[in-house]
């Protein structure tokens, strides 16, 4: 019997990848690096600094900047990204999310957020669903990012459930790996790339039933 649901945010609850892309692309352009949408897929689920490192490697500029410069680049991208996030409203929830969370709340099933994003509380607030989550893991407290299971294990612990009592939801391969390494049931939300290792894959949350997931 499953007792709690743990969600990734970007790509599962709302589609922020397009805003990340606009902000990273502008910064990359300024650094003389051209990125495209296909490259952007690699940045899903990856922390802000790791995303920057991947962009610099892609442009063969990984050894050109000091740590202070890199931090300033990441900060600049984030300021732009947060400006774009101002546009978010509850209409930006992905299909089925609101209904799924409402049903989980009616059945007293606790829900948590396991996202690498430091902007998660702000995004959930803009989407009008922050109160649906009993916990939001603070990525600043993590030693390792996905695919390490740490973030999902911390979420289960904070929800007071065992890992094998949790269902995790993810749109990125690194996230599915993290959920499976944590010993949880993994639901993949499929976009472009196929998600290997997920126990179940859907295109959007309205294909799922809360009751059925509690029995997996
Ligand atoms: C999510 C996104 C990544 C992003 C990361 C950090 O995992 O999928 O693309 O880099 O969050 O987001 P942040 O809002 O902290 O820059
Ligand atoms: Mg994601």
UniProtKB/TrEMBL annotation:
Compartmental location? Cytoplasm
**One GO BP:** carbohydrate metabolic process
Query: Which residues participate directly in catalysis?
Result: 8, 10
In the record, what terms sit under GO molecular function? beta-phosphoglucomutase activity; magnesium ion binding
Q: How is the cofactor bound?
A: Binds 2 magnesium ions per subunit.
Residues of the site described as Important for catalytic activity and assists the phosphoryl transfer reaction to Asp8 by balancing charge and orienting the reacting groups: 115, 146
Protein name according to UniProt = Beta-phosphoglucomutase
């Amino acid at each position: 019997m499953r007792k709690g649901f743990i969600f990734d945010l970007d790509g599962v609850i709302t589609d922020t990848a397009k805003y990340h892309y606009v902000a990273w692309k502008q910064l990359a352009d300024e650094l003389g690096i051209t990125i495209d949408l296909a490259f952007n897929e690699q940045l899903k689920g990856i922390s802000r600094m790791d995303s920057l490192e991947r962009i610099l490697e892609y442009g063969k500029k990984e050894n050109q900047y000091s740590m202070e410069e890199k931090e300033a680049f990441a900060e600049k991208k984030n300021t732009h990204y947060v400006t774009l996030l101002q546009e978010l409203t509850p209409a930006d929830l992905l299909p089925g999310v609101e209904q799924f969370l409402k049903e989980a709340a009616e059945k007293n099933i606790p829900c948590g957020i396991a996202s690498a994003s430091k902007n998660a509380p702000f995004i959930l607030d803009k989407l009008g669903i922050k109160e649906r989550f009993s916990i939001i893991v603070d990525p600043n407290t993590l030693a390792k990012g996905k695919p390490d299971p740490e973030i999902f294990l911390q979420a289960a612990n904070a929800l007071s459930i065992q890992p094998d009592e949790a269902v995790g939801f993810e749109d990125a391969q690194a996230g599915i790996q993290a959920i499976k390494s944590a010993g949880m049931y993994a639901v993949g939300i499929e976009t472009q790339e196929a998600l290997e290792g997920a126990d179940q894959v859907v295109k959007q949350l309205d294909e799922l039933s809360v009751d059925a997931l509690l029995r997996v």
